[in-house]
Amino acid sequence: MNAMTQDQQKQAVARAARDFVAAKIAAGAVVGVGTGSTANFFIDELATIKERLAGCVASSEATRMRLEGHGIRVFDLNDVAELPIYVDGADEIDAGLMMIKGGGGALTREKIVAAVAGTFVCVCDQSKLVDTLGRFPLPVEVIPMARAYVSRELSRLGGQPRLREGFVTDNGNIILDLHGLSIADPVTLETRINQIVGVVTSGLFARRGADLLLLATSRGVETINRRSEAATIPS
Ligand code: 5RP
User: Fold this and answer.
1) At what angle do helices 37-46 and 61-69 cross, to 10 degrees?
2) Helix residue spans in 2-60 (DSSP H)
3) DSSP single-letter state for residue 3
4) pLDDT tens, residue by residue, 128-153
5) Mean predicted confidence (pLDDT) in 116-125
6) Which helix (H) or strand (E) holds 222?
7) Per-residue confidence (pLDDT) for residue 60, from 0 to 100
8) In sequence order, what E strands does 28-111 have?
9) Which percentage of the chain shows pLDDT scores above 70?
10) I need a surface site. Which of 9, 14, 171, 174 has the fewest CB within 10 A?
């Protein structure tokens, strides 16, 4: 049998997430939806059960438009009392289900939706599972007037910040991508970066990691629970 391509793996994990949502939510629930190519596959799958949902909360304008393109109602997060499940991808995820996110620049809204959600389901292909976070440059959303100051402060943490050229977030801010990290203590680093004045948030999801990982591998989709045995990197 031919190995699955990365897109086929994303499709498979999106379908598994759709099935998970269908099994777990009550009729008329609102679902949180992430951003990125894997999230896009999930949105297309979610459309097949849209009659069972009241609608969704979107973590970016791109996701809002894709949901609305399927005729799925998009709620303002402030108008939603309960968000049982949030489904999103990641740029890297470790065995403790801590993540680097924000490759698509939606990290702040993603972190807000994740904070509200009851269960965070991360959907990834196996290329995203790592032993140590940090090979993927860590995105940091920054208020534009603080760019130079925040760059200096981030350099003091040991990485090399680079401005994401020509990119403005949905919130009107810039992104500094922090290269060259090997993150031994993600919780401490998340706290330190978030304390720098001018930082909106970092793409380190350590304090609020995922609760469940649906991981697409060449053998199919594996389910890894945060509280279960540590994940191993599939060969
Ligand atoms: C966007 C994100 C995405 O979840 C992350 O970049 C993964 O994207 P993809 O599924 O396209 O690999 O954090 O801000």
Assistant:
1) 30
2) 6-24, 37-46
3) P
4) 999 999 999 999 999 999 999 999 99
5) 97
6) strand 220-225
7) 98
8) 29-33, 53-58, 74-75, 85-88, 92-93, 99-100
9) 95
10) 171
